[in-house]
Amino acid sequence: MDEPATTYVIRPAAPPVTEVDDREAVLLERIRRLEKINAALMDRVERSTDVHGNAYSLFQTAINLELQVRARTDELTQVLRRLEQSNEDLRRAKEQAEQANAYKTRFLAAAGHDLLQPLNAARLSVSALADVQEGEEGRRLTGQVDRALGTIEDLLKTLLDISKLDAGVVTTEVRPVALDDLLGSLGSDFAPIVAQKGLRFRIRPSGLHVASDPQLLRRILQNLISNAVRYTAAGGVLVGVRRAGAGSVRIDVVDTGVGIPADEQEAVFEEFRRGSARTADGQTGLGLGLAIVRRMADALGHGLRLRSVAGRGTVFSVTLPIAPAPAPAAAEMVARAALGSFGVAGARVLVVENDPAVMRATEALLTRWRCRVAAVRGVADAADVASTGGAPDIVLADFHLDAGETGLEAVEAVRARAGRPVPAVVVTANYSEDVARRVRAAGCEIMQKPVKPAELRALMAHILG
């Protein structure tokens, strides 16, 4: 049997060991280089990605911020529109409130005039009735009626004053006011009341002048003194003046009355808050006097202070600026000299009044004073009386007459017929400063309704003197 053939594979000879190592080293070096290049490329790619990612993120953030700003701007715009609408509503409400206040003031002024007309007639009639009373009972009853009418008068005047102060239609005329003259006049008014109650009443002179509105200041002090007298059963009332720092003076109204508890001292300045204090006869006030005092003091910029101890007394203080004393005018000196005469008997008086009740009451009162009276209703009749009966010594004219005429027109007509400035007193229930200014500009005296007979007689005597 033949033996199988043997196959021989011829392989190339293995390179030397040194050559293989060199190749591996080269390959490893290339691999390392490639790895470095790859790492560098990857780092560059990552950084590029981060940059683009940050830019995209910033872009997205900017878009979001813009959307938020736009949303907030829209909200703010809506809020501003609502605010503008609210302001417009407030402006309209303010206008309506001001109109309501103006309407209220005009209504109260008109109503006050209508209410004061019959009240004026009643007081004049009661005064004339009191003069003819011979019995004690008749005088007592007429006195009660007169006091009741006086209370109604004070209430109406105070309500009207409060409404005008609240509406801001009161204009103040600040000028130098002689305190001694003002306090002396108030002392004369209160002396009979204080004497009737058996109280001591003192006013300390100061010789000072203050800067204030004389009418409003008189009302303030009148209310404070009235309160002091009303709530003092024993002891007395003192009105003193003292300096209060540089350029200021303080007027103190001191009483030894019932006092005001500490928890009620702020409330007494509110309307219709009368507190627990009662007068000697067990009555309480109307609760308006101190309310009007505070409003008037605020309108004038005067300080108002209250100190009181229940059961021991009260001190009301008004602080106001000192004013230099004006030089006395010749007319003022003549007027003061004429105050010594109080005779009106025989005077020819022309009364111009459109209300029949007031006309009859005024005629009756003047007749009781032994005046020669002529009474007419309008301007033309007044001029006729001056032409046919001779010029009167004095004219008493109501401001508001029929058909839109005024008492000033009647006075002007009488003066034109007489050829001289006949003295005149204009009586009115209109408390506006415009009316007072027109009356003063016409050279007439003014009296507010209801007319107090004693004041009317004193004024007539002063003019005729």
Automatic annotation (TrEMBL):
Keywords: Coiled coil, Kinase, Phosphoprotein, Transferase. GO terms for cellular component: plasma membrane. Its EC number is 2.7.13.3. Residues 110-324 form the Histidine kinase domain. It is an enzyme of class 2 (transferase). GO terms for molecular function: histidine phosphotransfer kinase activity; phosphorelay sensor kinase activity. Residues 348-464 form the Response regulatory domain. The modification 4-aspartylphosphate is found at D398. SMART domains: HATPase_c, HisKA, REC. The keyword Kinase applies. Pfam families: HATPase_c, HisKA, Response_reg. Residues 73-103 form a coiled coil. It catalyses: ATP + protein L-histidine = ADP + protein N-phospho-L-histidine. SUPFAM superfamilies: ATPase domain of HSP90 chaperone/DNA topoisomerase II/histidine kinase, CheY-like, Homodimeric domain of signal transducing histidine kinase. NCBIfam families: near_NosP_CTERM (NF041832). This is histidine kinase.
